[in-house]
Design a protein that fits this description.
Blueprint: E1 6-10, H1 14-25, E2 29-34, E3 45-48, H2 50-59, H3 62-67, E4 70-71, E5 74-79, E6 84-89, E7 95-98, H4 99-112, E8 116-119, E9 123-127, E10 131-134, E11 139-141, E12 144-147, H5 155-158, E13 162-178, H6 181-190, E14 193-199, E15 202-210, E16 213-221, H7 225-228, H8 234-240, H9 245-254, E17 263-270, E18 274-275, E19 278-280, H10 283-286, H11 295-312, H12 316-342, H13 349-361, H14 363-374
Parallel strand pairs: 1-2, 1-12, 2-8, 5-14, 12-19
Antiparallel strand pairs: 3-7, 4-7, 5-6, 9-10, 10-11, 13-16, 13-17, 14-15, 15-16, 18-19
The protein binds flavin-adenine dinucleotide.
Length: 386
């Protein structure tokens, strides 16, 4: 095992904070730089699947995390007409939780472990010999640098690590709206559901996110300029989803549109996940479209896996090799299969229903979609069964 040293981390998102906790728990001194003045401000929801609950359990914060979210009992897939094509129990992805709640708890856990988190601090460069450069020109020396600076990472570019950056043809806009008494009554009567409706090349996904909020994503093609305009045009979306008028009206009325913007999905692939003393983690290394709800899951699994590998191996270079060999194949599997799932949007309507139903009738396909959710993350092997 290499002796612990000092780590500098760029980005206080899911990946950066879990890596910080993992390293600090193993004796490292850690400083995390977050370019925003406050930690993750958005309340958008996130799907928490079994692999992520295991990571939270390994960090000792699972109960607190779940206390702020909602347990979802089933996922209903609908045609644009409102007809339910498939209804599945959400066995492996049972929770929807606000990002803000998760990031705040991770940050608190990191600070308890001794991690220093500096907000309003942008890392503009990192070098393979373990230096980072801050926006004001300050240079910090570390034994280990983690670039967890998200999908538009500037550090992976400055290290020359990008192998492929694919801008997908589609993207989405996320919002949070208040949960009404009638939503709560419906959930109490029929069970909490995540609703995913597909029509032409548009998709609406919504579900409760907390006792008082509903989380919504609208996805469409980049070239569908009228659908991706914000604030959302109710009439345009109602053409595709005629039975969802009331929900669309609420979205138009209750969303804080200053907080929302349509983002184009991307897939990122790197030549290597590390160079010298720098590891690249999370969306910065392996962003993926969100259809399988596993981007943050992989950021967190790989953050914990990184700390475990650094602890296990004799030196940093062997640790980074071990880490990439262990974690990369599953991450790339999920990148591939999230594209397959998302490709439903491109199918003609008659084929969409078949494709959606295939998840129930072709166990092999369902196994590809759920492989990450079923995975026992590195560092979670000794946990009791969840
Ligand atoms: C519409 C949509 C829905 C999604 N739904 C899900 C889901 O349900 N489940 C799921 O697991 N994933 C989901 N994802 C994916 C998930 O959001 C990402 O995979 C996840 O946020 C990646 O975590 P990260 O830590 O790598 O990056 P981020 O969460 O983006 O964190 C990066 C941090 O680095 C900071 N930063 C950036 N540059 C610098 C710099 N130069 N210096 C210092 N700090 C910097 C940023 O401010 C940010 O705080 C979704 C994504 C989208 C677009």
């Amino acid at each position: 095992m290499a002796p612990p040293g000092h780590a500098e981390i760029a980005g206080a998102g899911f990946g950066g904070l879990v890596a910080a906790i993992g390293l600090a728990d193993r004796g490292w001194t850690v400083r995390v730089h977050e370019r925003r003045d406050v930690l993750h401000a958005e309340g958008y929801g996130i799907a928490i699947q079994d692999n992520m609950t295991r990571v939270f359990a390994a960090l000792g914060i699972l109960d607190e995390i779940l206390a702020g979210g909602m347990e979802i009992e089933r996922r209903d897939s609908l045609k644009g007409t409102g007809k339910v094509v498939l209804s599945l129990k959400t066995g492996l992805g049972r929770y929807r939780i606000s990002r803000r709640h998760i990031v705040n708890l991770l940050a608190r856990r990191a600070q308890k472990a001794g991690v220093e988190i500096v907000t309003g601090s942008t890392v503009v460069d990192a070098t393979p010999d373990g230096h980072i450069v801050l926006e004001g020109g300050e240079i910090c020396q570390a034994d280990f640098v983690v670039a967890a600076d998200g999908i538009n990472s500037s550090l992976r570019g400055s290290l020359g690590m990008t192998a492929r950056r694919v801008w997908q043809k589609e993207g989405g806009v996320r919002m949070v709206i208040p949960r009404l008494p009638e939503d709560i009554a419906t959930d109490a009567r029929d069970g909490t559901a995540m609703i995913e409706a597909w029509s032409n090349k548009r998709r609406i996904l919504y579900c409760p996110n907390s006792p008082s909020e509903v989380y919504v994503i609208l996805t469409c093609m980049e070239r569908d300029t009228i659908a991706r305009a914000t604030p959302v045009d109710v009439a345009v979306w109602q053409q595709s989803f005629p039975t969802m008028g009331p929900l669309l009206e609420r979205i138009a009325r209750d969303t804080d549109w200053d907080e929302c913007r349509w983002v184009r999905f991307q897939t990122i692939r790197l030549k290597r996940w590390s160079r010298g003393r720098v590891a690249i983690l999370g969306d910065a290394a392996h962003a993926m479209p969100p259809y399988l709800g596993q981007g943050a899951g992989h950021a967190m699994m790989n953050g914990l896996g990184l700390a475990v590998a650094v602890d296990e191996a004799g030196d940093l270079a062997s640790a980074l090799d071990l880490w990439e060999r262990r974690e990369r194949p599953l991450t790339e599997h999920t990148q591939r299969w999230t594209r397959v799932y998302g490709a439903t949007i491109f199918l003609p309507e008659w084929l969409k229903s078949l494709a959606i139903n295939a998840e129930k009738h072709v166990p092999w396909l369902a196994a590809q979609y759920s492989r990450a959710a079923k995975h026992l993350p590195t560092g979670c092997e000794t946990l009791p069964d969840l």
